[in-house]
Amino acid sequence: MVGGGQLARMTHEAGIPLGIRFKLLSDTPQESAAQVVGDVVIGDYRDLETLRAFAQGCDVITFDHEHVPTEHLRALEADGIPVRPGPDALVHAQDKGVMRAKLDEIGVPCPRHRIVRDVVDVVAFAAEGVPEGDEGDGFPVVLKTVRGGYDGKGVWVVRSAADAADPFRAGVPVLAEEKVDFVRELAANVVRSPHGQAVAYPVVESQQVDGVCDTVIAPAPGIAEELTLQATELALRIAKELGVVGHLAVELFETRDGRILVNELAMRPHNSGHWTQDGAITSQFANHVRAVLDLPLGDPRPRAKWTVMANVLGGDFPDMYSAYLHCMARDPQLKIHMYGKDVKPGRKVGHVNTYGDDLDDVLERARHAAGYLRGTITE
Questions:
Q1: What pLDDT is recorded for position 169?
Q2: How sure is the predictor about 150, in pLDDT bands with cuts at 50, 70 and 90?
Q3: For residues 59 and 98, what is the distance between their CA atoms, to the nearest angstrom?
Q4: Cα(276)–Cα(300) distance, integer angstroms
Q5: Distances (CA, A) of 187 to 51, 148, 252
Q6: Fewer Cβ in 10 A, N or C end of the chain?
Q7: 3-state secondary structure the chain
Q8: Which is it for the CA torsion 155, 156, 157, 160, positive or negative?
């Protein structure tokens, strides 16, 4: 696996019961996965020769992020090394412009969008969204760098032409999108193997705070059955059309008029699927491992009526472990997953999972534990 973050850490854990030997390419020995994996290579994933040396002896290469240069992945494939997902699929998660163009081609509903070159382009794009007879200017709009953004980074909500200059200072292409009037954010998680077997997890609600995932509720409360089917079928179709192998997360907007629009794609285990570790028969991590090795996929059905995942973000208290006694004693069913990271304010350092039959109770338990571990709740 290329990338030493928490996704690699949890994917490695899922492979242990299957007897899978796991090799890791990590930026530093301190990365989350590098602390627990036995076979670790320290190196720069942006260097082709480092990747080639790392790949020697591997049956398959997969990733915990989308940042490996596409041309390097093509070179590995040319060397005869299986790369899953392959570069032809992964580029749609690496480049938002490529993703939008492909989704348009295959008829997937998306927010109105266009690549823009400068502030003048942004103003013109905003004006295109003004209804006839309306005197507005079309703002706000959303601007995104086409590559490299995550967790709210590389994303700007622009409310006027004066605000639109910052994204262009990075010197990379910028995608303009309409600011969608949505009720909530959803995620459809599916897994697909090389021989075409695919499984789908329940559609979940993903709640964001300051552009970072805070809470995931599985399944999405109150979602109409037809919307669930539409989201699931959409995710499975995207996985097939793009040739995805492994886990695919399709982030969605549920609009006020009852539609769903695709916001983002991720071709790796995803924060919106962390609940599956304790809430599904087969976790997203275990199924990603099975898929990239072309093994039969596991059952994705939930174990409980409700499962809630709450991210643990770093706060002002660096020693979170002292909070374990309280959290474990208060809720013996609580599942805590920590990533071994240094605590920094706002940084994802772990998550908790709770489950049960009463959604209000399950939500309260998850949020209390995450807040107590962070230090924002003290009793």
A1: 82
A2: low
A3: 29
A4: 8
A5: 32, 21, 6
A6: C
A7: CECCCHHHHHHHHHHHHHCCCCEEEECCCCCCHHHCCCEEEECCCCCHHHHHHHHCCCCCECECCCCCCHHHHHHHHHCCCCECCCHHHHHHHHCHHHHHHHHHHCCCCCCCEEEECCHHHHHHHHHHCCCCCCCCCCCCEEEEECCCCCCCCCEEEECCHHHCCHHHHHCCCEEEEECCCEEEEEEEEEEECCCCCEEECCCEEEEEECCEEEEEEECCCCCCHHHHHHHHHHHHHHHHHHCCCEEEEEEEEEECCCCEEEEEEECCCCHHHCCHHHHECCCHHHHHHHHHCCCCCCCCCECCCEEEEEEEECCCCCCHHHHHHHHHHHCCCCEEEECCCCCCCCCEEEEEEEEECCHHHHHHHHHHHHHHHHCCCCC
A8: negative
| Structure tokens belonging to residue 207 | 């709640």
For 46-62, what is each residue's pLDDT tens digit?
Answer: 999 999 999 999 999 99
CA distance 133 to 341: 54
Which one-letter amino acid corresponds to residue 197?
A: Q
Structure tokens at 311: 């991210």
- pTM across the whole model: 0.95
Residue with tokens 């699927």: 273
Predicted confidence (pLDDT) at residue 22 exceeds the cutoff of 80: yes
**Hey, what are 165's tokens?**
């200059």
Name the residue type at position 25.
L
